[in-house]
Design goal:
alpha/beta; elongated; six-stranded mixed sheet; 54% helix; binds fe (ii) ion
């Protein structure tokens, strides 16, 4: 790996190509335009480089030792930390099959070899503009995520709750065959669904004994407050219904809107099951954690009462029993399972 430019930049571009002459050509063209270029000679090094520092754009040769350009692209696009990073694949001019494979791997754009200088610069500039916009979006998201985590951090009993919820909701959503944008919404909602608790005073949030009716009223506001906090973010369009409706019940007895059955968005029905299970299997000031089997039994009774979606619960139970949704470390502490 060589770092070729230290000038002030319009961005940092990672170039991966096993041919030294190809790397040098791209480095020369891009550094002349003020970009910082980091050049590596194979796919694995490209992925390692991504974990080391800030990269704005990746240009990958298709045929490389260790990991091919397609494989690297696929890994970048399937990782929540890097999926917004633009990837350009360099393919042979007329290789339609490579382009199709590139599209399937999630590539944002293609360059043909031999690389044309003006085409390279035009594509890089336009992807860089896109990257700037997504960076802004990511900053807004990360502010929200930090806020949500700081609220979670107030309560020692819910430690790690957001991450567990995000992971398990994604797994359940996938099991139900939900489309990718809803899975992404579940990932975000797992972290931010309780962000509205910012408006609940600590004296209520951390109260060890029963809440008064007045205190409950304040707690029940948190889905609406959370929705309002996240509403300005366009990318959270599919997250908002999950935040608002994660305390609805299938028979209409939940809050804030008393929605019934399938009127409750499916993503909210997914997240709430995972949320309830997590709460049951976590120690609380007023009760110790239930074991996995006890929690499933309680939830089964609640399904019978009409609270939760029976079909989704059935799938959830299957995933918990098969260990695909993992609460093992916590239930081991809680109930020896
Ligand atoms: Fe909540």
């Amino acid at each position: 790996m060589q770092q070729l430019s230290h000038q002030p930049v319009a961005g940092t571009i990672l170039v991966a190509d096993d041919q030294a002459s190809n790397r040098e050509l791209l480095e020369e063209l891009l550094t002349l335009q003020g970009f910082t270029v980091i050049a590596v000679q194979d796919g694995t090094s490209a992925l390692e480089q991504l974990t080391r520092g800030h990269i704005d754009l990746v240009i990958l040769d298709v045929m490389m030792p260790r990991l091919t350009g397609f494989e690297v692209c696929e890994k970048i696009k399937s990782n929540p930390q890097t999926y917004l990073l633009p990837v350009v694949l360099i393919t042979a001019l007329s290789n339609k099959e490579d382009r199709l494979k590139g599209i399937q791997s999630g590539a944002d754009d293609f360059l043909s070899r031999p690389v044309d200088r003006s085409e390279l610069l035009a594509r890089v500039q336009s992807l860089m503009k896109l990257k700037l916009r997504t960076d802004e979006l990511e900053r807004a998201e990360s502010v929200l995520f930090s806020l949500a985590r700081s609220i979670e951090g107030k309560d020692p009993y819910t430690h790690g709750h957001c991450e567990r919820l995000a992971e398990s909701s994604i797994r359940l959503g996938e099991q139900l065959g939900l489309p990718e944008e809803q899975i992404t919404a579940l990932r975000r909602a797992g972290v931010v669904h309780d962000v509205g608790k910012i408006a609940v005073p600590d004296a209520i949030l951390l109260k060890p004994n029963r809440l008064t009716e007045q205190e409950w009223k304040i707690v029940r506001e948190h889905p609406i407050v959370g929705e309002r906090i996240c509403a300005p973010l366009k990318s959270f369009r599919l997250v908002l219904p999950i935040i608002r409706h994660h305390h609805e019940k299938f028979d209409g007895s939940g809050y804030p809107d008393g929605l019934r059955g399938e009127a409750i968005p499916v993503t909210a029905r997914v997240l709430q099951l995972v949320d309830v299970f997590d709460a049951l299997t976590t120690d609380r000031p007023y009760k110790s954690a239930s074991s996995t089997a006890e929690a499933l039994q309680i939830m089964r009774e609640e399904v019978a009462k009409g609270w939760w979606d029976p079909h989704i619960f059935e799938q959830f139970e299957r995933l918990v029993r098969s260990g695909e949704i993992g609460f093992q470390s916590r239930s081991a502490a809680a109930g020896g399972e």
